[in-house]
Amino acid sequence: MRIRVEGRCALNGVYRPSGNGNAAQALLAAALLTDAPITLRNIPRTLSTQAMLDLAERLGAQLTWLGAQAVTVTAPQLAQRKLTQVDTASVAALLFAAPILVRRQFARIEFDFPLNRIRTHLEALRDLGIDVVNSSGAVELRAATWGRREVWLTQASVTATAIVMMLAARLGKETIVRHAACEPHLQDLAALLVAMGARIEGAGSNVLHIYGTDALGGADVTVGPDHIETASIAAIAAMSGGRVRIDGIRRANLGLIAKIYWRLGISMDMDEATAFIPRHEALTVSNREEDVDSSVETAPWPGFPSDLVALATVFATQARGTSLIHEKLFNNRLLFVDKLMA
Fold first, then answer.
1. Which residue from 97, 80, 199, 96 is spatially nearest to 143, judged by alpha carbons?
2. In whole numbers, what is the pLDDT of the chain averaged over residues?
3. How far is CA 142 from the centre of its chain?
4. pLDDT(338) > 90
5. Coil, strand or helix: which one is 166?
6. pLDDT of 172-212, one tens digit each?
7. What's the angle, vertex CA 192, arms to CA 273 and CA 222, rounded to 5?
8. Do 93 and 83 contact (CB within 8 A), yes or no?
9. Does domain 225-341 have CATH number 3.40.50.2020?
10. Pairing state of beta strands 269-270 and 62-65?
11. What is the pLDDT of residues 35-71, one digit of tens each?
12. Helix, strand, or coil here: 69?
């Protein structure tokens, strides 16, 4: 696919970000934990979300669309207990292991990647008492119930945290999860599980206290706005010299991002649901003494997201002043920098 972009045009107007794709994927998996109907609103129609919708249908879910971005998911029963190599080409598909275990008590996950890629996930399952058996190119899981369990995640993995949350909401009486990931999409997942009948304390923090229930019911929830998309539009508007109002945001998800942007010369004026990006005649790195050679370092949430480090690098090249960019989570995020120099 070839995309042609004509630049040097200021972006002006009103923008509304789409729903958080990572949240939508987790909520779709959680919808299969019960046979009651779950309505999800503000679903982004991305390729990755569509792949999860297709997989949910193959597993036995019935999808009833209530417009372009709202769907009711009903899963009277799950038709299969296996995720194939094709399914697990996307790591998000692993989320369906939770409803399969809950509803069918056994799951087989086939994969075509090194097993250490999901080491954190498997360790967490073992900590919950789930029987984990590794075979050639697959992992077989057998469900277990528990009274009280405490799980320490060796990495703050979003997918591992989501799987543990879903299993704990249905199979455990009381579960404590430490070093949990706490991204906005996991907060959306917690909100859905609570609406379905579970009790969760600490959502949005690194320690979760989950009280499960014998049966999860139906719910109607809205997928939160994509904070990465919001921050990207804000940066592009500022770099282009435009003025943009972004509606439908969640200010709490943008606080640190706005602080880092300010140090790099981009101003975001926000209230709880709206962000305004004024016209920037020029971008200038903060000249406060403590901000000399301003440093941007990625970190797990609520740190500065790795998904924005490439964009931050680009607009740092357009700002007066020196900025130091450190990518500490993924080793290939900044491989494009030589193209900027070219």
1. 97
2. 94
3. 27
4. no
5. helix
6. 999 999 999 999 999 999 999 999 999 999 999 999 999 99
7. 40
8. yes
9. no
10. unpaired
11. 999 999 999 999 999 999 999 999 999 999 999 999 9
12. coil
Nearest to 181 by CA among 170, 173, 189, 192: 189
Specify whether the CB–CB gap between 268 and 277 falls below 8 A. yes
Are 270 and 254 spatial neighbours (Cβ–Cβ below 8 Å)?
yes
pLDDT at 267: 95
Residue ranges, CATH 3.65.10.10, the chain: 21-222, 225-341
Report how far residue 224's alpha carbon sits from residue 215's, in angstroms, rounded to the nearest whole number: 25
Pairing of strands 13-15, 244-247: parallel
pLDDT per residue as tens digits for the range 288-307: 766 666 688 999 999 999 99
Rg (CA), the chain: 21
Sheet of 38-41: strand order equals 62-65, 70-74, 38-41, 219-222
Q: Enter the CATH code of domain 21-222.
A: 3.65.10.10
Does the structure show a pLDDT above 90 at 133? yes
**AA letter at 201:** E
Burial class (CB in 10 A: 0-12, 13-18, 19+), 97: buried
Of 14, 18, 7, the residue nearest 225 (C-alpha): 18
pTM, 2 dp: 0.94
Among the residues of 32-157, which ranges form H helices?
Answer: 47-59, 97-104, 119-127
Distances (CA, A) of 141 to 50, 96, 107, 108, 295: 26, 12, 5, 6, 44
